[in-house]
Amino acid sequence: MEELFTGVYQIDNDLSLVDDFLSQLGREAVESCDADGLDLMHHCIIAGNHGFAQRMWNRGFFTQAHVDGKLPYIHLACLLGRMPFLHSIASSRPVAEMQNLTVQGKEWIDLRLLKKTLQSVDGNSTKKLEKAYKNFSGNEEELLTALDVAAIAENANCVETIMVLCGNPKSHTLVQAVELG
């Protein structure tokens, strides 16, 4: 199973390897979590490996509603500014989940774990994550939607996308506010 988690960070173009992995495993194995509480979809989002994730979605994995106690995919995508994931997650989930699913302040972010994992993938994302984490410091007690996370992390494209998907296409003023910091 560890090979599959590692594969998310190594497989770039040869997605046939993903199909080989997935065909050998059942839903329980594919959707299980590692020792840090992250599953394959979390690792795909962190790695920015949308092709791997798309293969899993096409095979019916990770299509159920959000499970309480688990790091929401939509929030992680918004935190890291992973637009392809935001679009894919939004297209397979009810809009109400995007609007109503919340996380508490910055408690949901394991900065040490995310930094360690991101450093092997993208140094720029690591710096951006550290900056975003500092921006969360005034919001420890608040319940945050994916839109809140995108705005606090200053991911204007995610903010605009969520606003449009949730029925508010006139989001340019909010986007400008996020860009101005």
Biggest sheet architecture:
2 strands, antiparallel
The unreliable regions are none
Task: Tally the helices.
Answer: 13
Structural class: mainly alpha
Strand content: under 5%
Number of strands: 2
State mean pLDDT (0 to 100 scale). Answer: 81
Secondary-structure element sequence?
A: HHHHHHHHEHHEHHH
Helix percentage: 55-70%
Rg computed from alpha carbons, rounded to a whole number of angstroms: 16 Å
Name a few traits of the molecule.
181 residues; mainly alpha; 2 strands
Task: Walk me through what this model shows.
By secondary structure, this protein is mainly α. 61% of the residues lie in helices and 2% in strands. Strands 1-2 form a two-stranded antiparallel ribbon. The longest helix is centred in the C-terminal third of the chain and has 13 residues, at 123-135.
Summarize the structure.
With 181 residues, this protein is an all-alpha fold.
Give the helices and strands, then pairings.
Layout: H1 2-10, H2 16-24, H3 27-30, H4 40-47, H5 50-58, H6 73-80, H7 83-92, H8 95-100, E1 103-104, H9 111-119, H10 123-135, E2 143-144, H11 146-152, H12 156-165, H13 172-180
Antiparallel strand pairs: 1-2
